[in-house]
Design a protein that fits this description.
The complex is a heterodimer of chains A (about 375) and B (about 170).
Chain A: H1 2-7, H2 13-34, H3 40-56, H4 60-73, E1 90-95, E2 98-102, E3 108-112, E4 116-119, E5 126-130, E6 133-137, E7 143-148, E8 153-159, E9 164-170, E10 173-178, E11 185-189, E12 195-197, E13 204-208, E14 214-218, E15 224-227, E16 233-239, E17 246-251, E18 257-260, E19 266-270, E20 275-282, E21 289-295, E22 298-302, E23 311-314, E24 320-322, E25 328-333, E26 338-343, E27 349-352, H5 355-358, E28 366-371
Antiparallel strand pairs in A: 1-2, 1-28, 2-3, 4-5, 5-6, 6-7, 8-9, 9-10, 10-11, 12-13, 13-14, 14-15, 16-17, 17-18, 18-19, 20-21, 21-22, 22-23, 24-25, 25-26, 26-27
Helix pairs in contact in A: 3-4
Chain B: H1 2-15, H2 19-41, H3 44-60, H4 71-93, H5 112-119, H6 123-133, H7 139-146, H8 150-167
């Protein structure tokens, strides 16, 4: 039997082996560079110190210790305010006060009292939503058009330089409107998000139907291209920037993350046996993902180029966003009231504290997107 | 015995940061890991991901690895379990990748009959057959690796072999 099994020809074996060795060797090199054996006691000390700090609820003396710990591992002292972004681009943030745009130099503009937002392609406009209104505006706050709708959620903008669409959900279901505010129509009745446009593929929209299946629909023709079988509850959908992978974040399914090909085949899954995935983000121009996991009250962040945890600490990392150049990852850490910027190689971390206060919010502000330009 | 000593030396070297020892481990164990994943999943892309991810997981855990234990079986049990999980997930969801029609190859790939026969077994049966006859686990080791009663392993082996015998 063994010779029979060894004789089976596997397509692309040689290439697969070369690719895998390249990835394994690079990871091994990173491991050597980032975690020499001599640092183990320091790392252990950091873990213990962080756990103790959680219990101390970050009192002032506790903060002093935390800062010392950060210095030991090369983490910069948490800045009291967002003085600048570590990579080019602009952030879109929503808080109790409304939707904000943050420039690279750290300056912020409040666009208005909206609760959700997303960038248009190329960051030229923003679509914002509040309970009874969908609005398109320019980044300076000028309103381009509005639509009065009930219970608006999940505004999402896609398209080319000359032709764009906005998808959103209201009380009637999923609706689509032209980027100029014209031609608003009901696409799928009685469905409530989440939604994700497939980049670079005309107007293909992924959504979750009433039976919990992920569906890809061509919004121009109304043709369903594929749908999956239901598996748990889908909390979020995100396409890779090249449109070649769709990541579904699940709860109560076989996996915590299911990754699909553009044709709807399951490419792979990600499961955390003793925890849950709290956020995931695909690095621009790649299919590699950063994943935040909560295990036993501890948040852990895994990044594609970092072998071990890129970050760990008490609480939950609630959202992740890559800089447009893929060089930095922004992680939301509500329990510490911090944003943490982690460089893609995991070797530098910048933390910003007092995030809620900076966005005039009781609840922790939500990162809606990080766009170039 | 000699092979076991070599393997321990390579693991020790890799733990100390030797890239050449890591490469030796990769050359020795990746092909079989990839083959095992492929024979369980019947998907070359998935097998590549599974073998690669398993190897990366092994590297991550090198510092905690007990050198007295053999590296290969440890890696291979990770691979087979992941492959079973992947196959179950795919089966439950029922997706089939839409493949553009391509002309049939002029010659059948080597081992095509065996592969087709394996494909008619359930993933669980395939895994047991692959572990026993490709990876050379004993039934007791398979039971341990897959967290199954020994009798279940034996019955799956028997049924798997019967089915393969009929087909081949």
């Amino acid at each position: 039997m063994k010779p029979e099994l060894e004789r089976i020809e596997i397509p692309g074996e040689h290439e697969a082996r070369a690719r895998s060795w390249s990835v394994v060797a690079r990871s091994f090199h990173e491991r050597k560079a980032t975690r020499p054996r001599a640092q183990w006691p320091k790392v252990a000390a950091v873990a213990i110190a962080l756990a103790a700090l959680a219990a101390a609820a970050l009192s002032s003396p506790g903060r002093a210790v935390l800062d010392e710990v950060r210095e030991v591992v090369g983490v910069e002292r948490a800045q009291p305010a967002l003085f600048s972004l570590p990579a080019p681009g602009r952030l879109l943030v929503s808080s109790d006060a409304g939707v904000w745009i943050v420039q690279q130099d750290g300056s912020k503009r409040l666009l208005g009292p909206y609760r959700e937002a997303s960038w248009s392609p190329f960051g030229r406009f923003v679509v914002v939503a509040r309970q009874f209104e969908l609005t398109a505006m320019d980044p300076e706050g000028g309103v381009r058009w509005t639509l009065a709708r009930r219970d608006v959620r999940f505004p999402r903008w896609t398209g080319s330089e000359t032709d764009t669409r906005v998808a959103y959900v209201d009380r009637t279901g999923i609706r689509v409107v032209g980027g100029d505010g014209l031609g608003d129509r009901l696409l799928v009745p009685k469905v409530r998000g989440p939604l994700a446009w497939r980049p670079g593929a005309g107007f293909q929209l992924a959504y979750v139907d009433r039976r919990g299946r992920v569906v890809l629909i061509d919004t121009e023709t109304g043709r369903v291209r594929w749908r999956t079988r239901p598996d748990g509850r889908v909390l979020g959908l995100e396409w890779s920037s090249n449109g070649s992978r769709l990541v579904a974040r699940l709860i109560g399914g076989l996996d915590d993350l299911s990754i699909y090909t553009p044709r709807g085949a399951l490419h792979t899954g990600f499961r955390t046996p003793r925890g849950r995935v709290t956020a995931a983000a695909t690095r621009p121009a790649s299919n590699a993902r950063a994943v935040a996991v909560a295990v036993n009250g501890q948040a852990r962040l895994f990044m594609p180029d970092v072998l071990r945890d890129a970050l760990s600490g008490p609480g939950v990392l609630s959202r992740l966003a890559w800089s447009p150049d893929g060089a930095w990852l922004l992680a939301s850490w509500p329990s510490a009231d911090q944003w943490v910027f982690v460089r893609a190689d995991g070797k530098r971390i910048r933390a910003v504290s007092n995030v809620s206060e900076q966005f005039r919010s009781r609840s922790f502000p939500r990162i809606e997107g990080w766009v170039a330009g | 015995m000699r092979a076991g000593r070599d393997e321990r030396a390579r693991v020790r070297g890799a733990q100390r940061g030797s890239a050449s020892d890591l490469e030796a481990l990769f050359r020795t164990y990746w092909p079989r890991a990839f083959r095992a994943a492929y024979l369980v999943t019947h998907d070359a892309g998935a097998a590549e991901d599974i073998a690669q991810e398993s190897f990366l997981a092994a590297i991550r855990a090198l510092d905690r690895f007990d050198r007295r234990r053999p590296f290969g079986p440890w890696l291979h049990r990770i691979v087979v379990n992941r492959a079973i999980d992947w196959t179950r997930a795919r089966k439950l969801r029922g997706e089939v990748e839409l493949v553009d029609s391509v002309p049939a190859p002029e010659t059948a790939p080597a081992g095509g009959e065996t592969l087709a026969a394996l494909a008619r077994l359930s993933p669980e049966h395939r895994a047991v057959v692959v572990m026993r006859y490709l990876l050379e686990f004993t039934p007791g080791e398979i039971a341990d690796a897959l967290d199954l009663p020994r009798g279940t392993v034996n019955s799956r082996l028997r049924r798997g072999l019967d089915a393969l015998g009929d087909e081949l």
